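Fold sample X.
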Amino acid sequence: MVLFTVPQARAELARLRPALDRLVAVRADAAELAAALSPGGPPTALGAMPELKAAEALLDELVTVIRDTGAHLKGLAPLLLDFPAELHGDEVLLCWLEGDDELAWYHRADLGFAGRRPLPS
């Protein structure tokens, strides 16, 4: 397992931002396409089954890009990433949630998101 320092995790998050932004957009398109393709679903200008399959394939690619960094993708909607790290001698997960401006939170692995705390300055 890769352990990140806080600066390394922040740099990796910055590098991932274009992929994360793309994932959010494709996730929305896939949701709209899936709704349109359901029985009685509202029409969409985004396309039909081929476009949904393409969106799903792109989502898989983007998830792979994220996981290949060593970050843990904990949620897709909203996006939730954890970066394994060591902080003050304890193994923790540096936590980024879609909408966060920066990587500014951590939690112990055994506590999960409910144990989220701000990173010390």
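Fold sample Y, listed below.
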Amino acid sequence: MPSSHGTRRKSRSILTKSNKITGVSYLLIEYKPGDKVVVDIDPSEHNTMPHRRFQGKIGIVEEVGRRTLRVMVKFGSKPKYLQTKFNHIRPITT
């Protein structure tokens, strides 16, 4: 039987959410262009989900929209741009 080569293949442990309740606090965070964020994929929201290769990567906010963000992530030597919703990213805690 041929195996699937979809975008979520081999991602069972990466795209699994714990049972803790997170709430909606991610919607209350104000992002500005130039802020550093971490790509933290929320598997319960499939719409605008970044590819799993970007899980845990650090990016810089380029644009802030009403519902989405444009984030630049350096992948190797090339910049990649992600258009994603607020629940797939979180700010860096220092």
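Sample Y note: The two ends are 48 Å apart (CA to CA).
Also: The mean pLDDT is 88.
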